[in-house]
Amino acid sequence: SGSKERLGMREYRSQDGGKTFDNGQEFPEVGGFGYGYAFDDARAADGSVVMLAMSFPELTGGIRAVHALRTRDNGASWEFVRNLNEEFRFAFNESSLIPCEGGFLIAARGDNRETRLYRTDGNFHLISERFVSDQYEAIDYIGRPKVFTEGGQVYLLCRNIPPNSATTLQLYRINPQSLELEANVILDRNESTPGDSYYAEYYFQQGENGLLYNIITYVPVSTRDKPDLVRLEADWSDLLRKLEEGAVKPGVS
Predict the structure, then answer these.
(1) Cα distances (Å, whole numbers) of residue 68 to 43, 64, 78
(2) What is the mean pLDDT of residues 181-185?
(3) Are 183 and 250 in contact, with CB atoms under 8 Å apart?
(4) SS3 of residue 226 by DSSP
């Protein structure tokens, strides 16, 4: 009914490779918390699957925080691992992770509009951090980050909202050891400057002339419009070339 109050997550399970799904059930409370949002998941070095899920004040547990959860039985049961807002001493929400050298690399959007990168061990203890929006002009207030690897490199796909400027959809290359931003390229620009755009998901596809980078996202023409779902397509080798050009590397502010 238009309320932003979270009612809790639901899960739907398929036993036939995604052809059909069951009628759904409430996602269980884990570690004394109810969850209203799942951001990302990854397979850990030990074979388990971990997930970043967000709790809310109106749900069991009564706090707003991003938690790391783990399943060892394909989601039949979950265990609480860590409150990452407490571990990182940082209030954040939208986030993404990938496995990295036995632990994880995490991109996080802060409630204070800062963007930070983190390295953790396999149990989500903090190893290192970098406040990238404080250090690079090319990244500000991001939205719905998606960290991924391709060809041995680490990338971050997300929207970026600079102060008093158009919202852009950007691809960044990250050094996983130092957490430095090595390069960036603008994939699309929304000149009407609505903040709510570019919650993007990607997939690779083999084209006639090489690898294609496809993005499914939405772009509203104005803040009053319902968003249009679009597919953006780029030649991956062309994006790699642009990332290597000095003109698109982030400048240190």
Answers:
(1) 13, 13, 10
(2) 93
(3) yes
(4) coil
Give the angle 23-34-218 at the CA atoms, nearest 5°. Answer: 65
Q: What is the DSSP letter of 128?
A: E
Q: Count other Cβ atoms within 10 Å, centred on residue 7.
A: 12
Q: CA–CA distance from 98 to each of 43, 233, 246 (Å)?
A: 8, 23, 27
As a whole number, mean pLDDT of residues 76-105 equals 97
Do the Cβ atoms of 170 and 189 come closer than 8 Å?
no
Q: pLDDT tier at 163 (50, 70, 90 boundaries)?
A: confident
Q: Which H/E stretch holds residue 126? A: strand 126-130
Q: What is the mean pLDDT of residues 60-81?
A: 96
- Does position 247 have pLDDT exceeding 90, yes or no? no
Q: Are 57 and 64 in contact (CB under 8 A)?
A: yes
Question: Coil, helix or strand for 97?
Answer: strand
Token pair for 184: 């960036």
